[in-house]
Amino acid sequence: MAESAARPTVMEVQDLVTHYGTRLVLKGVSLDIRQGEIMVIMGGSGSGKSTLLWHLLGLRRPTRGRVRVLGKDINRIGAREMQELRKQMGVSFQGGALFTSMTVGENVALPLREHTRLDESTIRIMCRLKLEVVNLGGFEHLMPSQLSGGMVKRAALARAVVMDPPLLFFDEPSAGLDPVVSVELDELILRLRKAMNMTIVVVTHELESAFKIADRITVLDQGEVLLVDTVERVRRSDNTRVQDLLNRRPRPVEMDADEYLRRLTG
Amino acid sequence: MTESRPGAVMSFVTGVGRRTLASVEELGYTASLLAESFYWLFVGPSLRQPVRHSAVFAQMMEIGVRAVVIVAVLAFTVGLMLAIQGIATLRTFGAESQVVLGIALSVTREFAPLITGVLVAGRSGSALTARIGTMQVSQEVDALRVMGINPVRYLVAPALLGMLVMVPALTLLADLLGLLGGAIYSRLELGIGLSAYVDQTIDVLTVDDIRQGLLKSAVFALIIALIGVANGFTVRGGAEGVGRATTRSVVLSISYILVADMLFTYFLNR
């Protein structure tokens, strides 16, 4: 996407440092996400990619650094501004996080019911529309426990986009799904971007899916950004840690004899 | 050995310190939940983020209406028990007829609020912890947050309001059923007629007795709701964590209810 450089930045992470207790998780992450692009944040387990997502969503407070979403520093703004900002962000969680006490339809309708003053029949039509988009038309009366894994994710996606947010976040779209369903979900993400022109941030460890949907990829490893670039350039990168990740090579275990002895003897 | 002694003392002191800090933190967290709930109840509507009536009614159904039968049965049983024990004890002084006074005061001031509180803690306090804890574990609480729906407004305020209305209401019911239980046994054992019993009871009871019981029950309602939600939100560690939090919530609620009851009784009877 050559023209993407000219687009405005909608999210900006500057030198983000975070701790989990005393453990350093993100070691100064910086990142720009531009309007209308699909940015995939990729990395192995423990790379800090989920932590980065929590910070983009404003669910955690960083030790240092800034996160700006749509021009606002989300750790500085007041509760009401954050509230307004959150209406502009849709999130689909790894496990779906559908409310188990409500039907699929009620789940999708919840943001509309809480944030708008639309009448009930309009809300119902809008929910059905979104459910049709994710191929779940006619399933609105089912409870989340009656859905399969792929359907849960699609329902969660419908709930995430029901307010037509300009920003969409997707945590591990293909986790726990069979390959066919996960490819379908990738297609769905691409279709959504095309139809609604959203900026989409996807966190995943699935290479295939990342290469398929991404405009740009951020490769995260042990709390550091190794690379932020287009799919092609990431593939051709000569960074060994990136190549290790791409070729599924196990990380070399660095052994420090003294350290090892100290750990054993405690 | 000589070396390990200061180590043991230190680790004991550190442990005490850590527990104290944790307790203070929990107390502060609970207090902030209370304050935030009232904020949403009173200020929410003007921010166009009201606490939903439907959610409050759902909680009231669950906490109050579904507990009516069991509260009635237990309060009736306690009334019977008080009458049996009271008559047996007072017989040694030959003052059986004073049992009406004993039952009237014990039921309205003590047993009705206490039985109701313990029962609601076991039924609804635990359910509250389990529900919020499960939502926490499955990221549903995070989902609410990122949707811009404040979890305290959406989950805590309705439960708190439901408790504050329904626990005193159930206590009133328990008052009536407890007195009825006492009346029926007194009639069988001492031959006191129902209308005479009612007249005597009305004679000895003051508005203040009922009010004391209701005041207590409102405090119990706060205790159950706050301990229930605080334990739910702080669940860590999956299904096992939810189970642990639920147990803790019930044990803590009942303990605090008993301690609060004792303190109330002490200060109100001085």
In short:
The complex is a heterodimer of chains A (266) and B (270). Chain A is an alpha/beta fold. Helices cover 38% and strands 24% of the residues of chain A.
Distance between the ends of chain A: 53 Å
**Main sheet: strands, sense, barrel of chain B:** none
- How big is the Rg of chain B? 23 Å
- What portion of residues of chain A is helical? 25-40%
What can you tell me about this protein's structure?
The complex is a heterodimer of chains A (266) and B (270). With 266 residues, chain A is of the alpha/beta class. In chain A, 38% of the residues lie in helices and 24% in strands. Chain A has helices spanning 49-56, 79-86, 104-115, 120-133, 149-161, 179-196, 207-213, 231-236, 240-246, 257-265; strands at residues 9-20, 23-34, 38-42, 64-69, 72-73, 89-92, 167-171, 199-204, 216-221, 224-230. Chain A has a six-stranded mixed sheet with strand order 6-7-8-3-9-10, sandwiched between helices. In chain A, strands 2-1-4-5 form a four-stranded antiparallel sheet, covered by helices on one side. In chain A, a hairpin with a 2-residue loop joins β9 (216-221) and β10 (224-230). In chain A, α4 (120-133) packs across α5. The longest helix of chain A has 18 residues, at 179-196. Chain B is an all-alpha fold and 270 residues long. In chain B, α4 (99-137) packs across α7 (194-204), α4 runs parallel beside α8 (207-233) and α8 (207-233) packs antiparallel against α9 (238-268). The model of chain B has no long low-confidence stretch (mean pLDDT 89). Chains A and B meet through α2 and α3 of A and α4 and α5 of B.
Task: Provide key terms for this protein.
heterodimer; A: 266 residues; alpha/beta; six-stranded mixed β-sheet; four-stranded antiparallel β-sheet; 10 strands; B: 270 residues; mainly alpha; 85% helix
